[in-house]
Amino acid sequence: KMFGLNNALLAAVVALAISASNAFTVAPATSISGTSSTQLLMSATAPPAQEQVVASSTMTPPSSSASNLPSQKELLSKSNNLASGAGLSISDLRFNGDVPKTEADEFIQLTNGGNTPLDISKYYVYVATTGTQGPTYYFPKGTVLKSGQSIRVYTNQVNMATGGYTFGSGKAIWSNNGGLAVLKDDKGKKVGEYKYKPN
User: Fold this and answer.
1) What pLDDT, in 10s, does the model give residues 144-196?
2) Contact 198, 137 (CB under 8 A)
3) Strands in the chain per DSSP E
4) Which of 25, 34, 54, 161 falls 20 to 30 Å from 11 in CA-CA distance?
5) What is the rounded distance in angstroms from the CA atom of residue 108 to the CA atom of residue 191?
6) 151, 109 Cβ separation under 8 angstroms
């Protein structure tokens, strides 16, 4: 009996030992929602993905303040392509005179539309009907036009009331069929032109 009791006691001790051993055995990691512990570890230690920065397409609205660009008037006054005395213009042209044959009373009229007196010494006006420089009149030294003043250059008359200037031509110089007059300054830059034609 003692032998049988001892065997039974020994079997119980062994069974207890085996049970205790199983209690401390680490089972292989099972997946959590399909993710292994190794994957979880890598996921936990992986650096965060860098955020991509996209430039905004929104444009800054234009300023509503006044422009500091020069006005058109200022640009014209500073242009190197303009002749000096740009206030001067051809304001009238009588191409069909009353004087028979010579039409000596033809005239071209110039006006100073500027606000200040204008020295037009050595300025010249000429007939350009054929596309080339025809009969030409050069203003003498000391010719000054006051603001708003007009003068005339006659084909072959001297009228002191309008300046006393004349081409001195014995025949008509302005075509009755229409043509072109050109005005240039003392440096040869064009100040203006005047196209005309019969009514």
Assistant:
1) 999 999 999 999 999 999 999 999 999 999 999 999 999 999 999 999 999 99
2) no
3) 88-94, 107-112, 118-119, 124-127, 136-138, 144-145, 150-154, 165-166, 179-184, 190-196
4) 25
5) 15
6) yes
Which residue type occupies 176? N
- 55-79 pLDDT, tens digit each: 433 333 333 333 333 333 333 333 3
Long-range contacts of 93-102 (CB under 8 A, 24+ apart): 93/174, 93/181, 93/194, 93/196, 94/174, 95/174, 95/175, 95/176, 95/178, 95/179, 95/196, 96/174, 96/176, 96/198, 97/155, 97/172, 101/171, 101/172, 102/155, 102/156, 102/170, 102/171, 102/172
Write the single-letter amino acid at 48: P
| Mean pLDDT within 100-125 | 96
Calpha distance 99→102 (Å, rounded): 6
**Owner of token pair 């539309």:** 113
> What is the spatial distance between Cα 175 and Cα 198, in angstroms, rounded to a whole number?
10
Residues 6+ apart with CB under 8 A from 12: none
